[in-house]
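Worked Example 4.2. Read the sequence first, then its C-alpha cells.
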Amino acid sequence: MLLLLLKLHCLSTMASSRLSFSGTNLKRPSTSPARSAYIKPTIALAGVAQNLSYWDSIHSDIDSHLKKALPIREPVSVFEPMHHLTFAPPKTTASALCVAACELIGGNREDAIVAASAIHLMHAAIYTHGHLMLTDSDQKIPHRFGPNIELLTGDGMFPFGFELLAASMDPDGDNSDKILRVIIEITRAVGSQGMVAGQDSDVEFDQLSGQTRRCLHGCGAACGAILGGGSHDEIERLRRYGVYAGKIQGLLSEIGRKERGKVKLVEKWRALALKELEYFDSKRIEQISKILISVISCYYDV
C-alpha cells in the first residue's frame, strides 16, 4: 500500500507539473482590502503555524477561534457539553478547505476563519447525531454525556454556527453580502439539498452529474472562494474540487484497504480534482492540492 500511496503522490506531482496556465492565469493582488476592526478575527497562532504543516496550521487557527468563541461559561450544563462535543469529533477537511480556497484566490485567512469555524460546528453536530446511538465499544470517542444531552447539544450547535457568521458581518465593511451567500451555502449543504438528501452517500460515488452537489466539502471550498472574492467560475471550480476531495475521504473511510477496484476510483477522482485547479495561478495551487495526499495518507500506513 505504500507503493500505491507513492504512486498517487507521483501522479499528483506530474499532474501539477503539466498544468497549463497560458491565457488563464488570474491577476489578483496577494491580499484582499483591509477590513474594518468591527469584528476582525485574530489569528493568534501565526508564529506557531510556521512550525506546522499548512493544513495543521489551518486546523490550529480554527480551534483557536472556536475556543475563544465557545468558552465554558454559565450555564455550565449547556456550554460544557457544547465545548466538549465541538472538539471531540475527528478533524474534517471541509472546514480547512474553506480557508485554503480563500487563500488560493488571494483572500486573507481571517476573511474565512469564521465560516470555517461554522462549518466545523456543522460537522461536529452531524457527527454527534450520527454517533448518538452507538455504544462506547462501537466508536473511538466514548460518550461523556447522556444521549438526551448530546442530542440537544448537537441541535444547539447548528444555530450557534449561524450566530457566529451573522456576528461577523461588518456594517463598515463590504462583507455582508458574502456572509449572506455563505449562510445560504451552508444551509443547503446541511439541509434538504445536502446531507438530508443523502448526496454524500456511497450509492452515488461513481457519479458526478452537472448539478452541483451540496456536500460539506464542496460547500467549504465554495464558501472560501466566496469570501476571498472569487468569480462565479472560480467558486464552482473550487466547489467541484472540494466535492472530489470529500468523496475520496468518504470512500476511503468506508472501504477495506484491499479493495483495489475502489482505489482506482480514488485515482480517477484525484485526477479530476487536480484538473479543476488548472484554472488557477500555478504558484498558489501547491498547498490546496496537498489535501489529496493528506486525505489518502490518513487511511493507509506509510
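Now turn to a second chain, presented in exactly the same format:
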Amino acid sequence: MTVVSRILSASSKILLLPSRSIATTSASYIKPSAFVQVAQTASRFRNVTMLSERKPFTPDFFFRQLFDEKSWTYSYLLGDINSKEAIIIDPVLEQAKRDAKLVQELGFKLTYALNTHMHADHITGTGYLKQLLPGMISVISEASGAKADKYLKDNEIVKFGRFELKAMSTPGHTNGCMTYVVEEQGVAFTGDTLLIRGCGRTDFQEGDSRTLYKSVHEKIFTLPENFRLFPAHDYKGNMETSVAEEKQYNPRLTKDIDAFVEIMANLNLPYPKMIDKAVPANRECGLYDIPKDE
C-alpha cells in the first residue's frame, strides 16, 4: 500500500497515514488541540534542557562520586590531576579505608576533608582519614559546633592545586550547613540543605524552616541555572540535579515560604536512628570510637 496524505481542514496540518483504509476510519481524525498540546510539551522540555545544559569539566579536574549504602550518603573526591592535590567532601567512617585506598591508587595527596555540616545520620570519616593519610586537614564551618583543624566562614576559599572551592553559608538544616561551590566547573555540593526534589529536615539540631528556605532561594537558587548540584544524600537512586531543575520541580521549595514552613512542620518523620551516636562523634570531628586499624 502506498502512503497517502490527508489534509485536516480544521487544523491545516498534513498527516502521513499508513493506508487508505485507515485514513477513512473515524480513528484517524486527530483534533487540532492535540497538536497544540504536543507542541507546548515539546517546548517546555526544550527549555528545561537548554537551562540545564551543563558545563564540561576541564581536562585537569578530577571528580568522583562515592556512595555509602547504609546511610545513603554521597562523598565526593575532587582533585587537580597535574598537582595531584585532592579534597574529599562528606566522607563516611565505614568507607574511610576504601577512600584512602582510592586516593593512594590514583596518586593523589589528600590535603583536606570537608564536611558540609555536623551530620546526624552517620559518623564522618574525617578523623579516621587523618590516621590513614597523615597530613590531611579536617575542615568544617565555624558555626557547626564541631572540632576541626580548620574552620570556614561564609565565602571563604579552599584551594587544592589550581582549583578553588568557595564555602557558602546555607543554614537551616543546622546552623553550620555550608554549600561548597567550584565555580569554574559549574558545580555545587549542597549537603543536606538542598536534596534532589527535597531538602534536609528542620525538626532537630538547630533546624529552622524559614532559614533553610532563605538559604536555598538567596544562595543556591541564585547560582547559574546550568550549575550541577550534588547533595549529601539521596534515597531514590538519583545522583545529581541542577539549579534549573530544582527551581522548577522541587515539590517543597517551589512553594512560597509560608506553605514551605507548613509542609516542613507536618512531615512527621521518625527520630533519626543514628543521631545519639553520630552527633557526639561528629562534634569531635570523627575522632570518637574510630575502629583500630588492622
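Notes for the reader: Residues 173 and 201 are 6 Å apart (CA to CA). Helices lie at 20-23, 32-52, 96-105, 126-132, 209-218, 243-249, 257-265, 275-283.
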